[in-house]
Amino acid sequence: MSLQTKYLLDENQMPKFWYNIQADLPKALPAVLHPGTLQPIGPDDLAPLFPMELIMQEVSTEREIEIPEPVRDIYRLWRPAPLYRAHRLEKVLGTPAKIFYKYEGVSPAGSHKPNTAIPQAFYNKQAGVKRLTTETGAGQWGTSLSFAGSLFDLEVLVFQVRVSYDQKPYRRAVMETYGARCLPSPSNQTEYGRSVLAQRPDHPGSLGIAISEAVELAVQREDTKYALGSVLNHVLMHQTIIGLEAMEQLQMADAWPDVVVGCTGGGSNFAGIAFPFIGHALRGGRKSRIVAVEPAACPSLTRGKYAYDFGDTGHMTPLTKMHTLGSTFTPPGFHAGGLRYHGMAPLVSHCKELGLLEATAYTQGQCFEAGVTFARAEGIVPAPEANHAVKGAIEEALRCKREGKSETILFNLCGHGHFDMAAYQKYFAGELKDEQYDEKELAMALSGLPSVPEPA
Ligand SMILES: Cc1ncc(COP(=O)(O)O)c(C=O)c1O
């Protein structure tokens, strides 16, 4: 009997709506606060940064938001993305579990990030914006926004975190191929960047610093707005097309996940696969366990404090309630650059507080080992970020083996690692250290959290 490996949807089966989990939450998300007044902000406060359509999506509590036809048209370049049954990995692990993975590496940029880059560029273009600024960690987001900018004829300026800029020169080359400009962050192009370099000229950078630089330039010009690749509610919502497609594909396989696993940096690919399943359960449907996997060297969900904090290091953003390691925390330079962020998406953090998901952390070495096992069984070399999800899924499959359970595991393989081969080479040469964060630095960063009185 032949074993079905890929579950594919036709283009006309692509979802027409994104799913907004805010409609189904048993308790509303805490308000976003103005850092000066500590009062909830309104749409106008965000207008210098984002087009109004995205701001309205940020605060919407409608369950479904229609995906505009021009966006769906571009999604067709790679969507619907395939769902795979990992028969070969199951065999290697000797597990009775059924493992499925949704593969987002088929996008032109090689990850899930274009799922939100395309609509963000679309709404900005519609609002008459000419130029977008952004940050990038792994280079995946910067690549995706550069690609989207080229399709909508928008100028794109990307601040790439210094360590990743040095580790991955070809990511920059791809961004430039799409017509974007890419600068290492901290840079001397912004006041904030210059102040960081003055204190530490060899600063490795962080997503928090790169965000400050991109925001600083965006607010200076009328024709320029800022685009963020994760964390915000609208970004997470754009990613739900991943889970919505997976639901259809699992039905084709006559399966439903007992466990859903994703890696978390800012939380967008994880939310993309997980939120539709959380929402399904909140509306009375079958419940799945939801597992977030993060790096032990930057463990915002497992070690961070649930508190109001800035989204950036230069303190230019509003305050959001989230799991945070402190906005001045600089994680060590491990290779999953997309997971080196001090905070977690407020929606993911809120779901954790409501007990709707679990979180776990693994070291870099453990994740690369899992990624290599996966590559040798299934053929795809995962991005270092995605290796965290692979590790989480393998752990669940091995638990099933110990317990003799044939559970169904779904995980998000959010990107390929073709630009990360230097990291794999280091792993094989035994040169990849399990970087530890500095406990003293964490304590200091947490002690600097803004003081926000709890509502009575
Ligand atoms: C392949 C990949 N996975 C995951 C992430 C982490 O971001 P998020 O948690 O928003 O999915 C990134 C970020 O750059 C990435 O490039």
Structural commentary:
The chain is of the alpha/beta class. It has helices spanning 43-46, 52-59, 69-75, 87-93, 114-126, 140-152, 162-167, 169-177, 191-199, 207-220, 233-239, 241-252, 268-282, 300-303, 346-353, 364-378, 384-403, 421-428, 439-447, and strands at residues 6-7, 17-19, 64-66, 83-85, 98-103, 131-136, 155-161, 181-185, 224-226, 259-263, 289-295, 305-310, 319-324, 358-362, 408-413. It has a 7-stranded mixed β-sheet, sandwiched between helices. The protein has a 4-stranded parallel β-sheet with strand order 8-7-6-9, sandwiched between helices. α13 (268-282) links the parallel β10 (259-263) and β11 (289-295). It is globular. The mean pLDDT is 96. Pyridoxal-5'-phosphate is lined by residues 111, 137-138, 140-141, 230, 263-270, 338-339, 383, 385-386, 414-415.
